[in-house]
Automatic annotation (TrEMBL):
The keyword Transferase applies. PANTHER family: GLYCOGEN PHOSPHORYLASE (PTHR11468), GLYCOGEN PHOSPHORYLASE, LIVER FORM (PTHR11468:SF3). It comes from Ostreococcus lucimarinus (strain CCE9901). This is Alpha-1,4 glucan phosphorylase. GO terms for cellular component: cytoplasm. InterPro entries: Glycg_phsphrylas, Glyco_trans_35, Pyridoxal_P_attach_site.
Length: 828
């Protein structure tokens, strides 16, 4: 068999063409000619997939043979974006495929845009997970991502009559050539049932979780290629299906229709991705999803590890030497009691040994300190669904509280705030406390966020375990966000410093001095102009909107949330609209022509966010059809923001807005992508904006607003001593209330404006408005000096190396996981 198995496939243009035609004939079973681009996408994807698979299987076999420690990144979300472009680029085959296709009458770019992107995530957290997978492979770390293969991803957002309407995102209609269904990898997952207590022959009390229902977890694997390396990692996503026993039992019971319904319920576990909506209620299915995914994942990790146990001197105690599990927020935190259950009930280890192993295996990344966004589950719900886990959580809590009692005798306030159980009615399980207690390391995702995490969220835990809390600032992959999204800029970089910058962003630093070179600035502007032109064409083709590519392109593209303050942006736009309509011809000449782009999804149940979408659409309608604005202002709400759209928008931006109320945005990662692509930021001193400013220099960023350490005092003062409202804000609000942008019958706009009444302006929108206008005016002024502006962009973009996820992952590897790269090189 070994002799028969193939060596690596040839990658010359003629061989690629043969492979494409073979897939058309044998994989698609189609005639060779007159294929539409969509079928040719399928053939191309399969041809590329062959080339991924050989590296993938070899990498996995190699790391198994070496017995290397592996990282497991557990995330309920992966927003990987389209795969074809990423794969040909990381394989180094973009040129060869483009040529192979061109010769037979197809355009690689067209073919790439046929791919439907899997939207298996909400936003930042899911995209971060995907940037991490790219870097882990590129840096040759043995690492797997684990998640859920949702049938329906993030909903498709359409604007119907000026409002957001959600449509199901069934992303698998045309199949998914990037995944392999592993029919040999299935695990049973139990839900409900009861705990049986019994004694072993030595008189020890043991527990067994029995009864309930058992569903099967089916593995689907997707190869994750690194850039410029053979290493290809794995992303394993689970799909739920009924178990055999389940089928037999329920159908034998004679209730045919009841049995079919129960079968459907099994499959429903992995049907749909939940939005990050704090107001979301009745989410028992979400808890099922979390446990289903965690149980399958731990069985899989455990099985892989156990192949080593008994070999040599390896015992269960060595698990932390071979396994590092990173929890992407608390969503997979039920893994902590689940591993305890495996070690206690199946492996029959004593509690202390099991607990030591568990704590050495897990680490937890926190992505928010907003109290309303911290996960809590009702005790009765966990008791019903996962009775043994509830017992284990209580035992973990009991032992933990004894430690608290030792450290702070009879401090009941501390006890109750540190407890895993919130003594409310019903009682709730605080998943963040569980995650902190069960992990060896907890990290925040930007400096300010980690500082607030320590001081506001976990101050007592910090006193108990000062070493446990660290910062690892987020980063983004330069492969997708520069090399693939911005070929114009990428080729300038490669022309200046060679191709090495793609996995070593520090190499761009020397280009900063070129900011003083007028010829170089000219080339830089030409690249930006190419991208703006491309976006203008896209907007015309897909939305029938004409924008002037010479205008300043200003973007705010991210999930719609009150704390992200899209309302502040809209109020600024309305203010500008008022100024334009009142300007004299002389004044008009001094104004900077602007195109404002806003994009993002509102959670389906988040009324304020949906109101905001309505307002943006209404403002754009009025502004774009007002002759007074013709050459000075356009407002575009781009529907259905996703990774593919971001790849078109970000390279075309001059200014982007990251304007959350200080202290509320954990990090932000869009901010990093924009600056890397030669755009500048209007932003608050929040999240990673602060570190970006440090890296690129104060003179290259337009900052405004209250600082995080001032917010609380401002809110307190505001409550009893309401400040006077800024006259410009007053006018903008007046215009909206007066109905210039329509008057929705549900009072949607008034609801938005009432929330920024200076007495209860939680997000400090009114408070920050004057300084916001100041920052926008500064940006406008700077934009008018073309040469100086370009110099800023060059300096900023070439100072961004620390926001590469390559730096981020090196920190995780060194400070949290204790893993080393294991490059695989094929024989020959
Ligand atoms: C929770 C419970 C029930 C249903 C859904 C959820 C849920 C789902 C997704 C809660 C939160 C999320 C996503 C959060 C997120 O994307 N956070 C962002 O993470 C980025 C990466 O660290 C940061 O840059 C952003 O600042 C942060 O908002």
């Amino acid at each position: 068999l070994w002799k028969l198995s193939s060596t690596y496939l040839p990658n010359d243009v003629a061989s690629l063409q043969r492979s494409l035609v073979r897939h058309v004939e044998y994989t698609l079973a189609r005639r060779r000619y007159k294929l539409d681009t969509s079928s040719f996408y399928q053939a191309t994807a399969h041809s590329v997939r062959d080339r991924l698979i050989e590296r993938w299987t070899d990498t996995q076999q190699y790391s198994a043979k070496k017995g290397a420690k592996k990282v497991y990144y557990l995330s309920l979300e992966f927003l990987i974006g389209r795969s074809l472009g990423n794969a040909v680029s990381n394989l180094g085959l973009r040129g060869a495929y483009a040529e192979a296709l061109r010769q037979i009458g197809y355009d690689l770019e067209d073919i790439m845009s046929e791919e439907k992107e899997p939207a298996l995530g909400n936003g930042g957290l899911g995209r971060l997970a995907s940037c991490f997978l790219d870097t882990l492979a590129t840096q040759n770390y043995p690492a797997w991502g684990y998640g859920i293969r949702y049938k329906y991803g993030m909903f498709e957002q359409r604007i119907v009559n000026g409002k957001q309407v959600e449509f199901p995102d069934y992303w698998l209609t045309d199949g998914n050539p990037w995944e392999v269904e592993r029919l040999d990898v299935q695990y049973p997952v139990r839900l409900f049932g009861h705990v049986r207590e019994f004694q072993d022959p030595d008189g020890n009390t043991l527990y067994a979780w029995e009864g309930g229902e058992v569903v099967m977890a089916q593995a689907y694997d997707t190869p994750i290629p690194g850039y410029g390396t053979y290493n290809t990692n794995n992303m394993r996503l689970w799909s739920s299906k009924p178990s055999h026993e389940f089928n037999l039992a329920s159908f034998n019971a004679g209730n045919y229709y009841g049995a079919v319904e129960a079968k459907e319920r099994c499959e429903s576990i992995t049907s749909v991705l939940y939005p990050n909506d704090a107001t979301e209620e009745g989410k028992r299915l979400r808890l099922k999803q979390q446990y289903f995914f965690v149980s399958a994942t731990l069985q899989d990790i455990y099985r892989r590890f156990k192949k080593n146990v008994g070999r040599g001197s390896t015992t269960m105690k060595n698990m932390p030497d071979k396994v590092a599990i990173q929890l992407n927020d608390t969503h997979p935190a039920i893994a902590i009691p689940e591993l305890m259950r495996l070690l206690l009930d199946i492996e029959r280890l004593p509690w202390d040994e099991a607990w030591e192993i568990t704590r050495k295996v897990f680490a937890y990344t926190n992505h928010t300190i907003l109290p309303e966004a911290l996960e809590k589950w009702p005790v009765p719900m966990i008791t019903e669904l996962l009775p043994r886990h509830m017992q284990i959580i209580y035992e973990i809590n009991h032992r933990f509280l004894l430690e608290v009692q030792k450290m702070w005798p009879n401090d009941t306030a501390r006890m109750s705030s540190m407890s895993i159980i919130e003594e409310s009615s019903p009682k709730m399980v605080r998943m963040s406390n569980l995650a902190v207690i069960g992990s060896h390391t907890v990290n925040g995702v930007a400096m300010i966020h980690t500082k607030l995490l320590k001081s506001l969220l976990f101050p007592d835990f910090l006193l108990m375990w000062p070493e446990k809390f660290i910062n690892v600032t987020n980063g983004v992959t330069p492969r997708r966000w520069l090399l693939q999204a911005n070929p114009a800029l990428a080729s300038i970089y490669t022309g200046m410093v060679g191709p090495g910058w793609v996995n070593d962003l520090k190499r761009l630093e020397p280009i900063k001095t070129m900011a003083q070179d007028p010829q170089f600035r000219q080339r830089w502007r030409a690249a930006k102009q190419t991208n703006k032109q491309a976006l203008a064409e896209w907007l015309y083709r897909s939305m029938n909107i004409r924008v002037d590519p010479n205008a300043l392109f200003d973007m705010q593209i991210k999930r719609i949330h009150e704390y992200k303050r899209q309302l502040l942006n809209v109020l600024g736009i309305v203010h500008r609209y008022a100024e334009i309509t009142q300007a004299t011809p002389e004044q008009r000449k001094t104004m900077v022509p602007r195109v404002h782009i806003i994009a993002g999804k509102a959670a389906p149940g988040y009324v304020m966010a949906k109101n905001l979408v309505m307002l943006v659409c209404a403002v754009s309608e009025v502004v774009n059809s007002d002759a007074a604005c013709r050459d000075l202002l356009k407002v575009v709400f781009v529907p259905n923001f996703n990774v593919s759209l971001a790849e078109i928008l970000i390279p075309a931006s001059d200014i982007s807005q990251h304007i959350s109320t200080a202290g509320m945005e954990a990090s932000g990662t869009g901010n990093m992508k924009f600056v890397m692509n030669g755009g500048l930021i209007v932003g608050t001193m929040d999240g990673a904006n602060i570190e970006i400013e440090q890296a690129i220099g104060e003179h290259n960023m337009f900052t405004f607003g209250a600082k995080a350490d001032q917010v609380a005092a401002i809110r307190r003062k505001m409550a009893h001593d309401p400040p006077k409202i800024d006259p410009r804000l007053h006018r903008a609000m007046g215009m909206i209330r007066a109905g210039i942008f329509g008057k929705p019958d549900d009072g949607a706009y008034n609801q938005l404006l009432d929330a920024i009444d200076p007495r209860k302006d939680v997000y400090l929108t009114a408070h920050d408005f004057p300084s916001y206008l100041g920052a926008i005016a500064e940006a406008d002024a700077a934009y008018q000096y073309e040469e100086k502006w370009t110099a800023k962009c060059i300096e900023a973009a070439c100072s961004m190396w620390m926001f590469s996820s390559d730096r981020t992952i090196r920190e995780y590897a060194a400070k949290i996981w204790n893993v080393e790269p294991l490059p695989f090189r094929p024989p020959r």
